[in-house]
Amino acid sequence: MNLCFVTEPSLNNVWQERLSEISRQDVVVFGFNGLGLVSYKKELSGETEYFHDVAKLSKQLSSVVISGCDTDTYGIFRHSVVIAEKGKILGVSDMAHSVDESEFVPGGNYRVFETSVCKIGIIVKEDLFFPEASSVLSLCDADIIICIDEKQENSMSQVMLRASAFSNGVPMALCARGYSAAVDIKGNVISASSADIFKVKISLERDYHNVGLKRRGLYRDYGPNY
């Protein structure tokens, strides 16, 4: 799968000035630089067309287009990711966890989107730090899990990206401001770059580990009369 990360320019800036650099890609991923703040009220009234632009770009490129954004639902703010293909919005994923004090609140559950390329699981920002996020998306048959994050302050995101890919046997990718990375099912870094537009080819393979667990105490299987 050909994957293109856009880590700095906005979606419209790339569309108008650098379209040739993101063409002929299966999936194009923007960080939170892609759309900025999106007001559902203004979108519904037609005052803005941010989501419509994502859909139009996906149609023009004949690619899956993914972009991070902050959403304003009548005064309720969330970190979100929108995904589109062939001119159609497939859905919006919100960050499921709220970490420490923040004006941004948790949103909907984790989602896997079925596209013509593959099944794509989406992780938003700090959800990457919670192992159940990638585990749930893997169990829901995601072929690849893509995390959209903000500027990287330390190496924790890459550590969690590698650990999650290895433990769940699914390739993962990260797109943040000024940084992108892709990891294979063994937890090995395929690529890591600070380029504002960066392309990588990812093999969509899955792996399943036989995991043993030693537990203390007495355990027995549930019977039909439990």
Question: Could you walk me through the main structural features you see in this protein, from its secondary elements to its overall organization?
Answer:
The chain is α/β, with parallel strands linked by helices and 226 residues long. It has a single domain (2-201), classed as Carbon-nitrogen hydrolase (Nitrilase/N-carbamoyl-D-aminoacid amidohydrolase), CATH 3.60.110. 23% of the residues lie in helices and 33% in strands. The protein has six helices and 13 strands. The radius of gyration is 18 Å and the shape is globular. The termini are far apart.
Largest sheet: 7 strands, mixed
What share of residues is helical? 10-25%
Query: Can you count the helices?
Result: 6
Structurally, the number of domains stands at 1
Question: How is the secondary structure organized here?
Answer:
Elements: E1 2-6, H1 11-17, H2 19-22, E2 27-30, E3 37-39, H3 40-45, H4 50-61, E4 64-73, E5 76-85, E6 88-94, E7 111-114, E8 119-124, H5 131-139, E9 144-148, H6 156-168, E10 172-176, E11 179-183, E12 189-193, E13 197-201
Parallel strand pairs: 1-2, 2-4, 3-4, 8-9, 9-10
Antiparallel strand pairs: 1-13, 4-5, 5-6, 7-8, 10-11, 11-12
Helix pairs in contact: 5-6
Q: Keywords for this structure?
A:
alpha/beta; 6 helices
